[in-house]
Amino acid sequence: MSSSSSPSVLLNTGVQMPLLGLGTYKLVGPEDVYQAVDAALAAGYRSFDSAAVYRNEADLGRVLKELLPKHGLTREDVFITSKLGPKDQGEGAMEGALRSLAQLDLGYIDLYLIHWPGTQGRVVTDQRNPGNRAESWAALEKLHAQGKLKAIGVSNYTPAHMRELIQSCKIPPALLQVEFHPRLCQTELRKVCEEYEVCFQAYSSLGKGELVTDPVVLEVSKNCERTPAQVLLRWAVQQGVPVLPKSSNPDRIKDNARLFDFTLSDTDMDRLSALDCEHKYCWDPSEVV
Ligand code: NAP
Q1: Which residues are catalytic?
Q2: Cβ(206) to ligand 1 under 6 A?
Q3: Is the shortest distance between the CB of 50 and ligand 1 below 6 Å?
Q4: Per-residue confidence at 270, pLDDT binned at 50, 70, 90?
Q5: In this predicted model, what pLDDT tens digit does every residue of 72-118 receive, in sequence order?
């Protein structure tokens, strides 16, 4: 990726990934995608997180082709993530990943993740899950070798799934994307990622919007004269954790990007981290064998 002012983290592939990306879950339809991506590019976002299951890969690809020149940018200036649908886990993985590449139609995907450790339509305890994960990973490794997926990684993996992958893979995962916010600090997963040099990335940093009214978040927000959303996002990036706030509102998209011109005090960081109660707003992979 070409240099940009957007703060970034170094992946184990040697590539820089922006610390801030726009989440796109529930961002659907050409007009809504256009409005959000336009606002995001103007506000300095250079990373966009999509997935086959979000059903917005085609719109995101089309909109980027239209908007990049308007913002004086090229394909190389942006970092695009997408994910393999859980229905394609296993023998459908190669076809699923090729479908994502075709839908986005941007030449290559910067980061492609296995979205979920299980397989859609199978119970979480299905003994074929580990084999399916291995088959998906092998498909991603092939496409990585061909340069179509510049980096590959996983999402919603538990420490056990991570160890299984690290022990069997040819190419190690570049990144793990999981739910992470003050109520879910993911201490064990972060240690595993550190041990194996896997970038740890947060999703649902705002608790799907619910955390912006947490009393401690509101108090910290008042103290530092920043919005609750900025406090939640800053709490993550100050620990070096990349974030993917989602909004379809241009004002909030702009507001959520103002993270790199202030610092939370150690006391405020600790107060926020003390909210950890292993609360999940999203899906829970802990039962997937
Ligand atoms: P989130 O970013 O924690 O929260 C999004 C919600 O917060 C939306 O309802 C949004 O509403 C609201 N919001 C945004 N900015 C706000 C602000 N400044 N003040 C108040 N409310 C605000 O939730 P998320 O969408 O679950 O997670 C973010 C992204 O992570 C997703 O879009 C997706 O890309 C990724 N993700 C990945 C997985 C996975 O399994 N890998 C799972 C979940 C999420 P408006 O749109 O109306 O502003």
Answers
A1: 54
A2: yes
A3: no
A4: very high
A5: 999 999 999 999 999 999 999 999 999 999 999 999 999 999 999 99
Question: What tokens were used for 237?
Answer: 């990036």
User: Pairing state of beta strands 22-23 and 199-203?
Assistant: unpaired
pLDDT grade for 2, boundaries at 50, 70 and 90: very low
Task: Give pLDDT, residue 1.
Answer: 39
Q: What pLDDT does residue 207 have?
A: 98
| Ligand 1 atom at minimal distance to the Cα of residue 227 | 18
Beta bridge partner(s), residue 17 = 9
Q: Which residue has the tokens 């739910």?
A: 179
Which tokens is 169 given?
A: 């893979």
Q: How far is the CA of 48 from the centre of ligand 1 (A)?
A: 13
How many residues belong to the chain?
A: 289
Does residue 221's CB lie within 6 angstroms of at least one atom of ligand 1?
no
Residue 3 has pLDDT above 60, yes or no: no
Q: For the whole model, what pTM was predicted?
A: 0.97
Q: How confident is the model at residue 5 (pLDDT cuts 50, 70, 90)?
A: low
Buried b (16+ CB within 10 A) or exposed e, 8-32: bbebbbebbbbbbbbbbbebeeeeb
Q: Which is nearest to 123 in space by CA: 165, 162, 176, 86?
A: 86
